[in-house]
Specification:
The chain has about 525 residues and is an all-alpha fold. The chain has one domain. It is built from 26 helices and no strands. Helix 4 packs across helix 18, helix 6 packs parallel to helix 8 and helix 8 runs parallel beside helix 25.
Length: about 525
């Protein structure tokens, strides 16, 4: 029997509050989401008199209902196929081949930093793949040009989640689209595409990465100290730690140099693939996904739909799953006949890649479930929206407030996806009720705040993978990256205040006003901070 929603009043906010509080205390997002789900099921069962058994039946029925949804099931399949594709490309040696190609052509520190950034922007399909691939490929190159491991870790981290969260064909896009409420009259893909220019943290972070890569003496704070140390001594490892101890003997320099040569030799020995073994699978994933989106959107159905209309009406989950399957087929004929990967190893790699996506799929499923309980059963969004309407708070502040809340939650939990699942449905319901013109801007603010918190958090998986991929001490990475992330976040917060008040002018006008102003604020900070924030080392 299909469950009916109930007006639970103040009780309706208990599940997300429980999930948030436990996340802050335990730092375990799966446990926190599960307890939040059970608390919501308990409240619903108590109000309907379903008894103790009802707590479990409501939980399981909601979870199964979300997984039975065709779009959600397609998202799970896409993530599984994407995990397999990432494992295959890594095993084929395309990443190593790119590293050898790059090391033979890069002649300066600035070009090494720029190519590292561009590779990070190219690998937009998944942040895990991004972090490990860019670090493995570029570490010998940046070591050779005396770029500190801390700076490499920042370049990796600052192009992983930020580029994935604005790429329509990525695991992050699949996540965001699946959380977007279906009853709003706007599809998840339309909302995601609209949010891209107003996802200020992602856009400004990418700009800052390129700025720092090409601008000489553009670093400031602890990062400037480790960069000066690396350039002066040739030691690229543990620069932050060495500076904190007052430097180290010259003998370490020779040790580091030997390690760099060993790394280059390892690449040469293990690189069985070519550069196109990295590029072709990713290119076909994008191509097949775009064609599938047009197909599912009815572009060739003879209804006279434009490209934009077809993308807006598409079933993103189905299209991404079809694109992922097509990319795997191409990879098979690219790798196996050339004996880059054996027939047996090909499918073993797919299995390993699917296993690597299990944590993401679990978080996604639990986030769908708590979202369903809050939105479909307890009417949380409508209750919170009514409180906002009754308060004296200017609705124009909603984007800035949601940016801060999302940042705090994501920083504390170390995950953007769990934050998306909790906040996106509630935020959209609030805006639909009190300020429909702020829906897309507020969605962008939640996404931006989530990525910022994830970017800074020492317990974030992408932060950990970035330091791992760069071969950098994890705490050193967090300490040197934090000032850069906070600089961008400050410009974003000001931007979302402006966006809230400019929203009545229309979305296009809002973008034209907000994005340039935020960019100018960031540029001003990047010009001033290197002059006023100098850390000796």
């Amino acid at each position: 029997m299909e469950a009916e929603f109930v007006h639970a009043g103040i009780w309706s906010v208990i599940p997300p509050l429980v999930a948030i509080a436990l996340s802050l205390i335990t730092k375990e997002v799966i446990f926190s989401l599960m307890v939040g789900i059970m608390s919501g099921a308990l409240i619903y069962s108590a109000l309907f008199g379903l008894g103790a058994v009802g707590v479990f039946t409501v939980t399981i029925d909601t979870m199964i209902g979300k997984l039975a949804d065709g779009g959600n099931a397609a998202m799970v399949i896409f993530l599984a196929l994407l995990g397999g594709l990432v494992a295959l490309v890594t095993k084929a040696g395309g990443s190593n081949a790119y590293g050898l190609w790059a090391s033979a052509r890069i002649k300066s520190r600035s070009s090494a930093g720029l190519l590292t950034s561009l590779l990070g922007l190219l690998i937009f399909i998944d942040d895990y793949f991004n972090c490990l691939t860019v670090g493995t490929v570029m570490r010998p190159v940046t070591d050779r040009h005396r770029i500190s491991r801390e700076k490499l870790a920042y370049l990796i981290d600052a192009t992983a989640a930020p580029v994935c969260v604005i790429a329509p064909i990525s695991s992050w896009a699949a996540s965001v689209i699946s959380y977007y409420p279906t009853e709003t009259g706007v599809t998840g893909m339309q909302a995601f595409a609209g949010s891209i220019p107003m996802n200020l943290y992602a856009v400004l972070t990418i700009f800052m990465v390129i700025w720092l890569a090409v601008r000489k003496n553009g670093d400031y704070g602890p990062m400037a100290a480790v960069e000066r140390y690396a350039e002066k001594t040739g030691i690229t490892e543990r620069c932050f730690e060495r500076i904190s101890r007052g430097g180290e003997e010259e003998g370490v320099k020779n040790e580091t140099s030997v390690n760099d040569n060993d790394e280059l030799e390892r690449l040469r020995v293990s690189a069985g693939g070519k550069v196109f073994d990295l590029i072709i699978p990713v290119a076909f994933l994008v191509l097949f996904s775009v064609l599938a989106m047009l197909w599912y959107g009815g572009f060739w159905a003879g209804e006279g739909k434009s490209l934009f209309e077809a993308f807006g009406d598409t079933s993103a989950g189905f299209a991404l799953a079809l694109g992922g399957f097509g990319a795997l087929v191409v990879s098979f004929f690219l790798f196996v006949p050339r004996r880059i990967i054996s027939f047996k190893d090909f499918f073993a790699a797919i299995g390993a890649g699917i296993k690597s996506m299990t944590p993401a799929i679990i978080i996604l499923t639990l986030a769908w479930t708590i979202s369903g309980i809050c939105r479909d059963l307890l009417n949380t969004g409508m209750y919170v929206a009514a409180l906002v309407e009754a308060s004296s708070m200017p609705v124009a502040l909603i984007p800035a407030i949601m940016f801060v809340i999302a940042a705090a939650l994501s920083f504390s939990t170390g995950t953007s996806w769990g934050t998306f699942g909790i906040l996106i449905p509630i935020t959209i319901n609030i805006c639909d009720f009190v300020a429909p013109h702020l829906s897309i801007v507020s969605l962008s603010a939640v996404m931006a705040g989530s990525v910022f918190g994830d970017h800074c958090s020492p317990i974030s998986d992408t932060t950990i993978l970035s330091s791992t991929g760069a071969g950098c001490n994890h705490i050193s990475h967090v300490a040197t990256q934090m000032p850069y992330a906070l600089t961008v976040a400050a410009a974003c917060f000001a931007g979302y205040i402006i966006a809230g008040f400019a929203a009545p002018l229309g979305f296009a006008v809002n973008v034209i006003i907000t994005l340039p102003v935020s960019l100018v604020l960031l540029i001003a900070a990047l010009l001033v901070l290197p002059k006023v924030w100098k850390v000796t080392g």
